[in-house]
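TASK: fixed-backbone design
INPUT:
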């Protein structure tokens, strides 16, 4: 539709029709008349608003969305189509690894391809907008939503953010893909103690330098929408925070797309204690420039009265509605309200190309954390292998937030192993349950137990253990597929103990008595504390939730068909008490190992190392790569950093070369390391390559004491290595 026509449409709408565009309701409001009654009454929303609602939350499937749209438009006066929005986080039907696993690929170009597939599958289900990517920077593994992030570094996250947006919105103008809604703006990953929905409070310097860049990157890449976060910033909940939404997002970043609140966040302004009723909550949110109210009664019930009382201006509503209509128009909904929902989608899902991409991504996301005596890779059919553990033959490898993924289309680890190992040399026994206490899942525990029979009685527990022990006697190698329950991470999955579940740890102890070669496959939505496991196991592979092709990917890595190349994008602590532990922390006045004070009076713990168990950027391969000849050339506008890498093994590998800097002395304290560049290169067996990184002065800028964003001349150190710990270093002056 031409802009002029769209403007006319806007001016022909009544107030109630306009308000409807700013309200988002979930599926139960649209299904059948009988179902409507309950929630309608619960939120107290009138039939009239319902008939004019602008968007639908979390309804997908071409048939369902088609029906709802058709019925809605038939009754609608102005024929403004509904927008279907939903959570397609790391896959619609073809499920990729969770974002923390995507982060571990250090391969944003590959993730661009993955999000193209995700966007297209989601479109074919009738969705128009996905609430992704989630780009919250994460430093505290207690927070369950680490799962949804690409990690702890602003530069790496920004690289992923822009590729994810570009992938989802690929060819959007020609009705491909899906609009992206970047979330949760802002700084949600910094909730205190990793406790879900908790307070965020930090300096503006930290906010701008560390937490904001990935959102900015997504917006620069053209993300059509932004979702506000549940947390406060500087005492004001984000959904009412004018500084973040108006000053930064609208004015500084010039974002003129749609801002949506997170689920019920407008009415939660009352619980936060900054509004005393729905009317106040509504006016705070609309004044902060929140366009759509997701799933709260506030906008639907209060906006009209607020205008009538002169408390807000109708022009504010017009601006918000304009943004919503513009998005609908950009998506071509006026011409074709059904979009992907008009296609017969079934044979497009789960296709071979999408699956082979999911396999490639899963392979690259797996991180080899330990490989004592090079027990990996395994040689097919050489030894007797026993696989045990709750994830050994479990399609939950797609994780919890793969709402539309199908477990029956998921390759389990056992299935993957059968590609390499003959049946008479491969044994399987689950051996133990994933959890043995339902309270570990909070109030979901009893429901999960009902479905999955989590809690085993003594007899069952002993029988499985005995079976595992007797098969273990025969085996040469025991593979343990262990991990968190899917509900132990993700939204509202904060934990104070971030280890493997206790019953699994006890099971490991029992089997270790057999003194066999042991491999841990760790399935989790966060970095777990693996301090005990590092001592117990010969090899450890971190799998995350690897998705539809997970089992094949794991088998390829175990048997060396794939040389592992994943690198951590979030540090793994020794102990939960270190949290938050992250590589780019500020320097202190009493640094461990570098201070003049006695070792007692330096910045450390007396009962745990200060550095993480596995640092940011860490991951092994089956090759040995040597770094040498680090040098720096400082030119007028450029800093050229050279390094030589040599694959000293007979296996080809992919090596991720990481380039960090430290600003040695500045007007404000700077981080000990800052990732500035990385390159993931193919390095053939026994080959050497010279690698060059080119930085500009722009890369050295930071928020100075007076909050200007600039660089300061002086001494710098460049660090290059395979991770943030094992680096070569060289100083240079600017
Ligand atoms: C989550 C969002 C999600 C929304 C809609 C909220 O609880 O925080 O990430 O997009 O629900 O499902």
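OUTPUT:
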């Amino acid at each position: 539709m031409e802009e002029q026509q769209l403007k006319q449409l806007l001016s022909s709408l009544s107030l109630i029709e306009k308000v409807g565009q700013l309200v988002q309701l979930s599926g139960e409001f649209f299904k059948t008349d009988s179902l409507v009654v309950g929630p309608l009454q619960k939120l107290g929303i009138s039939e009239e608003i319902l008939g004019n609602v602008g968007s639908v939350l979390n309804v997908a499937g071409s048939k369902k969305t088609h029906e709802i749209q058709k019925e809605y438009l038939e009754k609608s006066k102005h024929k403004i189509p509904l927008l279907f929005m939903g959570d397609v986080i790391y896959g619609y039907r073809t499920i990729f690894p969770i974002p923390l696993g995507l982060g571990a690929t250090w391969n944003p170009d590959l993730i661009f391809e993955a999000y193209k597939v995700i966007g297209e599958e989601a479109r074919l289900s009738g969705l128009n907008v996905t609430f992704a990517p989630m780009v919250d920077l994460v430093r505290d593994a207690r927070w369950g939503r680490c799962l949804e992030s690409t990690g702890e570094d602003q530069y790496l996250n920004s690289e992923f953010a822009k590729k994810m947006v570009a992938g989802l919105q690929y060819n959007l103008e020609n009705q491909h893909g899906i609009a992206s809604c970047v979330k949760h703006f802002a700084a949600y990953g910094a909730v205190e103690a990793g406790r879900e929905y908790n307070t965020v409070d930090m300096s503006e310097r930290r906010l701008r330098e560390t937490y904001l860049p990935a959102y900015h990157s997504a917006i620069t890449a053209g993300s059509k929408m932004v979702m506000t976060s549940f947390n406060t910033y500087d005492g004001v909940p984000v959904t009412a925070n004018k500084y973040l939404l108006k000053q930064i997002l609208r004015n500084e970043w010039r974002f003129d797309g749609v801002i949506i609140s997170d689920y019920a966040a407008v009415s939660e302004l009352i619980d936060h204690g900054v509004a005393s009723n729905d009317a106040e909550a509504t006016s705070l949110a609309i004044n902060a420039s929140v366009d759509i109210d997701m799933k709260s009664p506030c906008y639907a019930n209060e906006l009209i009265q607020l205008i009538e009382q002169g408390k807000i201006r109708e022009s504010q509503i017009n601006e918000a509605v304009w943004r919503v209509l513009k998005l609908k128009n950009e998506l071509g909904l006026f011409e074709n309200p059904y979009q992907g929902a008009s296609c017969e989608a079934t044979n497009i899902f789960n296709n071979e190309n999408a699956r082979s991409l999911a396999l490639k991504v899963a392979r690259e996301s797996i991180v080899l954390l330990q490989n004592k005596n090079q027990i990996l890779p395994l040689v097919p059919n050489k030894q007797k292998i026993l696989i045990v553990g709750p994830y050994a033959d479990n399609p939950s490898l797609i994780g919890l937030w793969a709402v539309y993924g199908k477990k029956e289309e998921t390759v389990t680890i056992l299935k993957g192993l059968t590609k390499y190992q003959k049946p008479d040399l491969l044994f399987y026994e689950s051996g133990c349950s994933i959890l043995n206490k339902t309270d570990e899942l909070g109030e979901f525990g009893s429901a999960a137990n009902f479905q999955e029979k989590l809690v085993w009685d003594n007899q069952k527990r002993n029988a499985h253990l005995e079976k595992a022990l007797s098969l273990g006697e025969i085996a040469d190698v025991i593979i343990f597929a262990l991990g968190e329950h899917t509900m132990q991470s993700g939204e509202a999955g904060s934990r104070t103990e971030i280890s493997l579940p206790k019953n699994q740890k006890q099971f490991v102890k029992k089997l270790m008595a057999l003194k066999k070669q042991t491999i841990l496959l760790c399935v989790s939505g966060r970095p777990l504390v693996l301090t005990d496991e590092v001592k117990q196991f010969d090899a450890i592979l971190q799998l995350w939730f690897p998705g539809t092709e997970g089992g094949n990917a794991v088998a390829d890595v175990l048997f060396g068909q794939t040389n592992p190349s994943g690198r951590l994008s979030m540090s793994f602590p020794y102990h939960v008490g270190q949290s938050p532990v992250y590589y780019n922390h500020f320097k202190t006045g009493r640094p461990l190992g570098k201070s003049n004070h006695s070792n007692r009076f330096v910045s450390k713990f007396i009962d745990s190392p200060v550095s993480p168990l596995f640092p940011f950027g860490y991951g092994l391969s089956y090759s040995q790569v040597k770094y040498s000849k680090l040098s720096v050339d400082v030119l007028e506008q450029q800093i050229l950093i050279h390094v030589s890498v040599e694959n000293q093994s007979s296996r080809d590998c992919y090596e991720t070369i990481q380039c960090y800097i430290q600003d040695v002395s500045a007007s404000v304290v700077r981080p000990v390391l800052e990732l500035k560049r990385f390159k993931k290169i193919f390095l053939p067996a026994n080959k050497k390559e010279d690698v060059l990184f080119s930085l500009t002065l722009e890369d050295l800028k930071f928020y100075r004491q007076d909050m200007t964003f600039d660089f300061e001349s002086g001494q710098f150190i460049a660090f290059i290595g395979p991770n943030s710990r094992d680096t070569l270093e060289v100083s240079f002056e600017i």
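COMMENT: The two ends are 54 Å apart (CA to CA).
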